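Dear support,

I submitted the protein below through the web form. The confirmation email said the job was done, but the results page showed an empty box. After a refresh the structure appeared. I'm attaching both so you can tell me whether what I see now is the final result or a partial one.
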Amino acid sequence: MKRTGKPEALEHGQAQVVIQDNNTDQRLHDLATIAGIQRGLRGMYAGTGQDAEDVFESLEHDLRMLLERDRMMEAHTPDLRADIAEGVEQARRGELIPGTEGRERIRLKSRERPK
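What the results page shows now:
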């Protein structure tokens, strides 16, 4: 790699890893950035691009959705932890539920939870 400056592939069985030096990695990153800018400029000149206002509005919407999802997950986390702890205790006491019955109970319980 030092001699040629090209990435090297390391293989072990079916696993493969490609390594490259920092300069090559930075150059590839720079080329990808330039290509993205060029695509944006071509779209702007052709009149096929999006207004910045629309893009920001879309990003704000997506961010609001992600934040709402996180809030919902946080709200359900204590219940989920309690259910897991209860399940672990039941398993320790040998009170496991057969698979089909357990899955049905889970389905019913998930329908009861507020969405």
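Response: this is the final, complete result; the empty box was a page-load delay. The mean pLDDT is 86.
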